[in-house]
Design brief:
The protein has no helices and 26 strands. By secondary structure, the chain is mainly β. It starts with 21 loop residues before the first strand and ends with a strand.
């Protein structure tokens, strides 16, 4: 199966202001949003992401939104570096797919604007790239598809003056991560940590990602202390290896996680790990995640 190159990053910088509000044409009225805002409508509601960042590189634009308390992530990836309108879900050169992905970890949902990598399932319009102030603006809409083949409409998407960087997927702070997958070094592009509170349960998620949506994620209880732990499949500590947008395997019971330090006051956690990752329900290949280590400051 070909790996489609779609960047997936969660970066964590945000400043919401209330001036210079920019309008855009919705389906039936003008929608206005403040600088720094990324929002979209679906399921008869409007969702704004309080944490937003972006990168503009030589051949790809990434725009990211996070609602940490709700476990929601929205990622827009466009293979371009200038203003214009771009189709979503269509493979270019067999490896590049502009796409939007919405994840709601609280209910286990993943929606992506791609199905057969031939048919367009939406558009992203980049209206402005301000190279002086390093901000990017535009709008989008798409039909999202789940791993079970269901679909959901996302409309009236807009991002206004989102601050962007020009470095390749920088880590959040001085975060470090290393691991091997079946003996091969996992060369991550970015490492992030986030404290998530969902349905009365608080966890810390540590995620290392690559630009084709591969990732290794470690999830632990928010109150975890220094010591040795065994991985589980359905409760923290858990490990996950994502091969692509729609392929992921999770830690089997066993393996080992060693927390060497958890500084709750400064939100810093470090440790080592190894685990075997297998499909949760269906048959499929298993992967050995070994020689893992991390030192992460989470938000």
């Amino acid at each position: 199966m070909k790996a489609f190159k779609v960047s997936f990053v969660l970066l964590f910088t945000f400043l919401l202001t209330s001036c210079n509000i920019e309008p855009y044409e919705g389906d039936d009225k003008i929608i206005s949003v403040a600088p720094g805002v990324l929002q979209v409508e679906f399921d008869s509601k409007r969702v704004a992401f309080e944490t937003t960042t972006a990168t503009v590189l030589s051949d790809v634009i990434n725009i990211n939104g996070l609602r940490a308390a709700n476990g929601e992530v929205l990622t827009l990836t466009v293979f371009a570096n200038t203003t214009g309108t771009y189709q979503l879900g269509v493979a270019v050169d067999q490896v590049k797919v502009s796409a939007v992905t919405y994840i709601n970890s609280s209910v286990g949902e993943v929606w992506i604007s791609a199905s057969d990598f031939i048919t367009s399932h939406g558009e992203v319009t980049i209206t402005e790239i301000d190279e002086v102030n390093k901000t990017i603006s535009g709008s989008f809409f798409f039909t999202g598809y789940s791993t079970t083949g269901e679909n959901k409409e996302f409309t009236k998407g807009v991002f206004n003056q989102i601050s962007y960087g020009t470095d390749v997927l920088p880590n959040s702070g001085d975060n470090t991560f290393s691991a091997k997958v079946d003996g091969v070094i996992f060369e991550e592009d970015g490492v992030q940590g986030a404290l998530l509170s969902l349905s009365g349960t608080s966890t810390i998620m540590i995620s290392a990602t690559k630009n084709n949506l591969q990732s290794i994620t470690i999830t632990v209880d928010a109150n975890i202390t220094a010591g040795e732990y065994s991985f589980a499949t359905l409760e923290p500590p858990m490990g996950q290896y994502s091969l692509s947008l729609t392929e992921a395997v999770v830690s089997e019971d066993g393996g080992k996680l060693v927390i060497t330090e958890h500084d709750v006051a400064n939100k810093k956690i470090s440790g080592t790990f190894y685990f075997t990752a297998s499909p949760l329900i269906s048959e499929g290949a298993s992967y050995e995640i070994t020689e893992g280590s991390f030192e992460v400051t989470y938000i």
